[in-house]
Design goal:
The complex is a heterodimer. Chain A is α+β, with helices and mostly antiparallel strands. Chain A has helices at 4-10, 12-79, 153-203, 219-272, 278-304, 317-334, 353-370, 404-407, 426-436, and strands at residues 84-90, 95-98, 115-123, 126-139, 144-151, 312-316, 338-342, 348-352, 376-383, 388-394, 441-445, 450-456. Chain A folds into three domains: 12-160, PAS domain (Beta-Lactamase), CATH 3.30.450; 238-304; 309-456, 2-Layer Sandwich (Heat Shock Protein 90). Chain A has a five-stranded antiparallel sheet with strand order 2-1-5-4-3. In chain A, strands 7-9-10-12-11 form a five-stranded mixed sheet. A two-stranded antiparallel sheet of chain A has the order 6-8. In chain B, the strands form three sheets. A five-stranded parallel sheet of chain B has the order 2-1-3-4-5, sandwiched between helices. In chain B, helix 2 runs parallel beside helix 3. Classes of the chains: A alpha+beta, B alpha/beta.
């Protein structure tokens, strides 16, 4: 469970949701930014309009009634001003009239443009610094200054609201996105996990398992139902295959048994009456070859059908390799071939001991059969990243690359080896045993010779031995 | 020896019964599982040969029922079924040995003898002797005519098995199953090469051959006719 978080982040669902959240946050930022910019522009324009109107009004008074008229207008307007600010000052910026007490220090004498400045005002007898926007005019040749402004405190509040809200909003969106993503991926993961667990069990041989279907009737359920339908079909086919091999086994073994018994009887009769039983010996030997081929074929069929799961154990490959090497060493020795074993204990795999031994024996038998006197055959068991590798390499003629895929097919024997005894099923059986254990038989060039390799999945220390197939 | 044969294939049954009688055994036969079970439970047998697939009651069921009733008669299963799983199932159900059809009659006889031998252990032996060949199971020393013979561990086990079954035919598959503890087809007769190595050690240069090849069957260790 230690990498559960990492697993979550790696899921497609989480990545999609995260991307979506990022995109959404970006759009929200852009949208809010635009709204902010637009609102501010509108508010500024509004303020400017009001100021412009004031200025126009005051200018009219000034034009019509002169200095006195302007003064009265300023006094008048100041008494019931809303957001408007007026300040009429002399050449040294001293207040003459208006609702501003002092000339704001930040305002230059004549900017000729809209300016923004801070001013102090008492609200409920408490001094408060507020922001205003306005314009300054120089009157009477520089003897007086007129400041006409509009309080824009509310605009700043709005602006402030935007700037403080935006990071929070984006943060919240991302947080919610992450949480939602995690939740969604968790949900998807758990459902995918259950599908993966089930298919894993099925691959391991338990064909009775089915993917759970929920009440949600969503696409996962659809997938689960389709998988289950497929599994039903596979189970039926496998069961059929097993039944066929069983009945073929029974229906052919029974007459073969009678045939062999009759031959034995005749042989005994001939021998007891002092006659030559040579023909009968050869007939029995021929029957035994037939039986051996039949047994090998049946074993391949059974292995392909997944029979033999009952005898699955955690076994040490090193032990099997050692036994087989020891079993074949005298045979190799008699042929003048050096049979070597390179293996160390500790390589645990989950397997059927006698099938693994049979496969290894077939490979070693082939190596000894095809390697000329003075050659060498090596059995290697090595821990690799992908699992435990079992290799049988020889210094014989090898198999041309083009023929390698063909030799694992049933009854395929290369011209060069037709004269040697054998059923032509040896490598097919090795390939079947490989499939049975969830791996593949790889044939490579040993330069010179053949290198046959099987990489078994490593048995986890806690691996429970796969339960027997429930279908009986 | 009293032997019970439970086999539904009439021809196979007849051949089996005849062969066993010729080998000097007393034989009862049954054609289905129910008759087989009632015979097994009502009469004392030294061994029961039970077919795996039987009418009325499956061979596994017969043996399971026998064991349930505390009957410990050694059982040898005969089976025409698949070998991979069935062998395991048969032995789990309480069978003592398992032979797949078609089989050689000598193989069956050898296995019956081995099962009988297993049933009558003559105490715990620490020393095996055949003629002038002696095997000390404690010191793991082999001597013939007082002369020490050096054996590899597997050769020792091979010789021990042969000597425990002295004067009995021991087949190649029995050796592979008992000495190597594997059940598979070794393609080539690898056991023969092991035997000839062993023979070179225990027979070569000594008076009288002990390790014999039984034609068409297997091997036997026995003292020179005395």
């Amino acid at each position: 469970m230690k990498s559960a978080g990492l697993r979550l982040v790696r899921t497609q669902a989480f990545r999609i949701v995260l991307l979506y959240a990022l995109l959404f946050a970006l759009s929200v930022t852009a949208l809010l930014g635009f709204t902010y910019w637009n609102t501010r522009r509108t508010l500024d324009a509004q303020a400017d309009q009001i100021i412009q109107a004031e200025i126009t009004g005051l200018n009219e008074q000034y034009q019509r009634l002169g200095w006195q008229g302007l003064y009265e207008s300023v006094v008048n307007r100041s008494t019931n001003a809303g957001q408007a600010l007026y300040l009429l000052a002399d050449g040294s910026h001293r207040r003459i009239a208006g609702n501003l007490d002092v000339w704001p220090s930040s305002v230059a004498a004549d900017s000729g443009n809209y300016i923004e400045f801070d001013y102090e005002r008492r609200v409920n007898n408490l001094p408060e610094t507020r922001r205003a926007r306005g314009e300054v005019f120089r009157l009477e040749g520089g003897g007086f200054f007129l400041l006409v402004a509009e309080d824009v405190h509310d605009r700043d509040l709005t602006q402030h609201m935007f700037t403080t809200t935006l990071p929070w909003t984006v943060g919240l969106i991302l947080l919610l996105g992450l949480a939602g993503g995690a939740l969604m991926s968790q949900n998807m993961l758990s459902r995918l996990d259950s599908i993966n667990r089930t298919t894993g069990d099925i691959i391991a041989g338990d064909l009775t398992r089915r993917v759970p279907v929920t009440q949600a009737r969503d696409e996962f359920d659809l997938l689960a139902e389709n998988l289950n339908r497929m599994l039903d079909r596979i189970e039926r086919l496998m069961k059929g295959l097993r039944e066929v091999t069983d009945s073929v086994a029974h229906d052919l073994r029974t007459p073969l048994n009678r045939l062999r018994q009759r031959l034995e009887q005749s042989q005994v009769r001939l021998l007891s009456s002092g006659q030559d039983a040579g023909e009968m010996d050869r007939a029995i030997a021929e029957t035994d070859r037939l039986i051996a081929t039949f047994n090998a074929l049946l074993l391949i069929a059974e292995t392909d059908a997944g029979t033999g799961r009952q005898a699955m154990t955690v076994l040490e490959l090193d032990g099997v390799a050692r036994d087989v090497a020891e079993l074949y060493e005298p045979l190799a020795d008699a042929k003048g071939i050096h049979l070597r074993l390179e293996s160390r204990p500790g390589a645990l795999i989950e397997g059927n001991r006698s099938l693994v031994a049979q496969a290894l024996a077939n490979l070693v038998d082939n190596a000894i059969k095809y390697t000329p006197t003075g050659g060498q055959a090596t059995i290697t068991v090595a821990q690799q990243n992908e699992g435990v590798e079992l290799v049988v390499a020889d210094t014989g003629p090898g198999i041309p690359a083009a023929d390698r895929p063909r030799v694992v097919e049933r009854f395929v024997r290369l011209e060069a080896s037709r004269s040697s005894p054998g059923t032509g099923l040896g490598l097919s059986l090795v390939a079947a045993v490989a499939h049975f254990h969830g791996t593949q038989l790889k044939l490579e060039d040993n330069r010179p010779g053949l290198k046959a390799a099987l990489t078994f999945p490593r048995a986890s220390k806690t691996a429970p031995i796969r339960s027997a197939m429930a279908a009986e | 020896m009293r032997i019970l044969v439970v086999e539904d294939d009439i021809e196979a049954q007849r051949y089996l019964v005849q062969g066993l009688k010729e080998s000097g055994h007393v034989v009862d036969e049954a054609g289905d599982g129910e008759v087989g079970l009632s015979l097994a439970l009502s009469r004392p047998y030294d061994i029961a040969i039970v077919d795996r697939m039987l009418p009325k009651m499956d061979g596994l069921g017969v043996v399971a029922e026998m064991r349930e009733h505390g009957n410990s008669t050694p059982v040898l299963f005969l089976s025409a079924l698949s070998e991979v799983d069935d062998r395991v199932k048969g032995l789990k159900a309480g069978g003592d040995d398992y032979l797949t059809k078609p089989y050689a009659f000598v193989e069956l006889l050898a296995r019956i003898d081995a099962l009988m031998r297993r049933r009558t252990p003559a105490g715990v032996k620490t020393q095996l002797q055949v003629g002038d060949l002696e095997l000390d199971l404690l010191t793991r020393a082999a001597t013939r005519s007082g002369q020490e013979i050096e054996l590899q561990p597997r050769e020792f086990r091979l010789l021990e098995y042969l000597m425990r079954h002295a004067n009995q035919v021991v087949t190649r598959t029995m050796l592979l199953e008992s000495v190597w503890e594997y059940h598979f087809d070794p393609q080539t007769n690898v056991i023969d090469v092991h035997i000839s190595r062993l023979r070179a050690k225990i027979d070569k240069g000594f008076e009288g051959q002990l390790l014999h090849t039984v034609r068409g069957a297997g091997y036997m260790i026995r003292a020179a006719a005395a």
